[in-house]
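Hey team,

Filing this mostly as a record. A colleague (T.K.) asked me to run one chain through the structure pipeline before their review meeting, and I want the input and output archived in the tracker in case anyone asks later how it was produced. No errors, nothing strange. Just documentation.

Input sequence:
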Amino acid sequence: MNQGFEASEIEKLKNECKEEGQKYILVEDEMDLAESGEYLQFQFVGQFEGKEVIYDAAMFTLELHYQSLVMEEAERRVAKDHKNFVPIEDRKPGYKENPEIDELVQEYIEEIQEEDTLKVSEFVEIDKDFDFGIGLEVGLNVPEINHKVITNFIENFNNGTLGLDKNLFSFKEEE
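Output structure:
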């Protein structure tokens, strides 16, 4: 049974939120990523199919989402030509770097950005099969993920008034 649907867990989260004086609590084990302001993970109580549930949300700036997709595409292109290539996030301690291949990744990143064919728009993805409650991935076109952005999102999400910008965006890295 998914504990994020249990009344005792929901009540516990409500109490934690009340203690913090806000509508959510931050997930502490992801705080190292939060320092940049581009990403935060938090939990809040909402409704799902007429019942209270805990939502576990990963929220990031649209620019971070774009840069992640660009990196994935660049690494995919490198891996096609270099079978020994190990994507950056899969590298283990002691990995022997190959500067030529890493430089090629950077060249592909610049090429993808120059092509300007990769575009992103705001989104909310719902994961009903999440381990704890309902999982959300949220990408918003804001310069920073902060208390005000999260609070506005939760209010609009819970009220059914969330309006996502469907315009397509691309973000070029600064030189």
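Quick notes for T.K.: The radius of gyration is 19 Å. The chain has two domains: 3-63+120-159, 64-115.
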